[in-house]
Amino acid sequence: MCMYTDKGPVLTDCGLPGIRDIPFGVHMCNFYRTRDELSAALVPYFAAGLRNNERCIWITAEPLPARDAAAELRRAGLDVDAAIAEESLTVRDYGDWYADGGSLKGSDVVALWLAEEQRALAAGYSGLRITGNVTFLHGPGDWELFMEYEELLDAALRGQRIVTLCTYRRDKCAASGILDVMRRHNCTLDRPDEGWQMLTAYPV
Questions:
Q1: What is the pLDDT of residues 123-156, one digit of tens each?
Q2: What is the pLDDT of residues 71-95, one digit of tens each?
Q3: How many CB atoms neighbour CB 76 within 10 A?
Q4: Which of 23, 38, 82, 127 has the fewest CB atoms within 10 Å distance of its CB?
Q5: CB-based burial, 39-55: b 16+ in 10 Å, e otherwise
Q6: 92 near 134, Cβ under 8 Å?
Q7: First vs last C-alpha separation in the chain
Q8: CB–CB of 61/136 below 8 Å?
Q9: Architecture in CATH of 4-199
Q10: Helix 140-156 to helix 106-122 angle, to the nearest 10 degrees?
Q11: What are the structural domain ranges in the chain?
């Protein structure tokens, strides 16, 4: 059961089997190996958001670009076209959000998410649910800039009506990179053989 304050529910449904109630303001990460693993995390995550009257924004990249991501949602039985038309769902490739002339936009992207949250609340949604798939980074400089962005985002999300899940391809992250990511998120979602688990959870 969700807890409530005068601003609405404190908790929402993550959507992943084995992980139910998560707090608004949470900044989660997941390391996946294959396209199917990425879809298995994000399709139920967004299905739960749409059920819970949250505005959902999926920022895509290879191996699951926007057209394919929308197709995966349709295969799960969601009325994607209607959700997009009413702006409860946005599915867009990363270039529209993170890149401008080849440069990452750290603080500008954080400000964009906060503005999207306010727009969602003003439109009557209970919150904002977002994800970004991080396969577009090419060099050490990009990685450092993006880790700065993740750190800014982690601080900015506290107390906000936003749920965030950042996905990283495991074979693109060295051990030090995995630690970089985990330190900048409240928790890591993992799927060993026995099902989904939330690891290294911290209060938000």
A1: 999 999 999 888 877 777 888 888 999 999 999 9
A2: 999 999 999 999 999 999 999 998 7
A3: 13
A4: 82
A5: bbbbbbbbbbbbebebb
A6: no
A7: 19
A8: yes
A9: 3-Layer(aba) Sandwich (3.40)
A10: 40
A11: 4-199
